[in-house]
Write the structure tokens for this entry.
Amino acid sequence: MNPRDSSKKPTNFIRNVINEDLSSGKHKSVITRFPPEPNGYLHIGHAKSICLNFGTAADYYGWCNLRFDDTNPAKEDVEYIESIKRDVNWLGFEWHDKVKYSSDYFNKFYQCATELVSKGLAYVCFLSADEAKEYRGTLTKSGVNSPYRDNPIEENLALFKKMKEGGFKEGECVLRGKIDMSSSFMCMRDPIFYRVRFDSHHQTADKWCIYPMYDFSHCISDAIEGVTHSLCTLEFQDNRRPYDWILENLDEFNKPDRPYQYEFSRLNLEYTVMSKRKLQQLVENKLVSGWDDPRMPTISGLRRRGYSAASIRNFAQRIGISKVDSVTDVGILEASIRDDLNVVAPRTMAVINPIKLVIENYPENKLETLLAPVHPQNEEMGKREILFGQELYIDREDFIEIPPNNKYKRLTIDKEVRLRNAYVIKAKRFECDENGDISIVYCTYDSETLGKNPADGRKVKGVIHFVEASKSIKAEFRIYNRLFFDPNPGKSDELSSSINPESLQVKIGFVEPNMLNAKAEMAYQFEREGYFCRDNKSDGLVFNKTVGLRDTWTQ
Ligand code: ATP
Ligand code: MG
């Protein structure tokens, strides 16, 4: 079977494995899973894994399960389950069948564990946590067998049953695999399979007081679901050993077409923390406004910031899949959104830092409706109406009393600029407010320059944007910068000291009247300013800056 669209997709080592498995007949189809733990919101790193798991399965006409890896009830919450489902759908993917939970398989896990105990391959161990650590040894020192390791099978079966029935306290004992205390892989030194926890579970309530560990539950969940290729990040490389050992020792799953685990490198982004634990810290310490703060690398934060699902999928494709750990330049993510929005975003004008402009030779009380293209490179998107009158707003940055040099192209006294989509004007004088800041610029306009150059051949180089003052609508603009000024903020556990105090600037300015109907999350290009979208949580007119028009970080 050849993958769908194979010519368009760059290949990678996982696709090579799949191609081999399909051609050798080891597997007949491709079934993957995305297994988030519901202990936080998904981030852009998860998006890489989602695109890989759902995308690869779809390319091979297979499917991908969404499975909540919910074996640690203490840290989990249904709020996270709902947000994860929403984010996966929003990214454009659909899971196969109904949503799955590792907790659906708690009975099966218990049976499997019992099978291993009855084969003499697992035992109940009463070493304290400190003792167990001592017995485990280190990377350079072999471990020592637990004194409980060779207890008779019958005794272990009874003890494990007692564990399940609530006969032991938390921390009193655990079920361990009987593997190899001298293995060079620490996770093979009699790993814990089950521990006692009297926490109530969000799916199974108080039915269970023993919960399986990741290494034990993950491989069995994959096998139950018929997953063929279990894709995870590189830090699980060693865990492939217990994964294989457990499945090979369970009669039902020890088959050639059982699942196998393959590891790829995780996404790390400069100037960003990615672990859910650290993101949670930002939320809890109120360093951001919530999981969906537009400065967060979460999928919901990026969405609220104005990132499109297409741009995130495109980003995942650009960075590709490899086995080499690296740190990705945030510029690549920003380029992905710019490429998408440049094509789809309607153009409009907004003045973010306004000063008044009064055109002294323009009739008072006259309002003209001018036409401007919605997208300069795409006529099919049509025209929009913009208003023009005697009083306008322009951006403070576009007027200067004394230009820095003769290359200055914006407005200054006695020089001409074009108002975008409108006339050529010349500044005459200005007024300041009580703080000495420029508040009004007076100018004249050339009525013969609408949509054409001056007839006498004068060259007007600069173009600035504006909105008409009487009908424009007041709006709030939230301008985001990097949340951290440290390129690797995650290296320390204390995040507050590397937070950029200017990561959010709020400005009050004006937009064209038709922006009153702007839809939340829909992207606009505010001409000369950047891409923005209306905030999906605020009632008033609030616009989040998604990204600038070009990369200003590297300049
Ligand atoms: P975190 O450390 O952020 O909490 P996690 O690995 O604990 O992440 P899970 O909910 O267990 O989070 O992850 C679900 C899936 O997403 C796993 O298969 C995991 O390998 C993958 N994943 C998590 N972070 C990244 C990342 N930065 N890049 C690529 N894949 C990731
Ligand atoms: Mg995890």
The chain is about 25% helix and 25% strand. The two ends are 48 Å apart (CA to CA). Residues 37 surround magnesium ion (ligand 2) (CB under 6 Å). The first helix runs from residue 13 to 24.
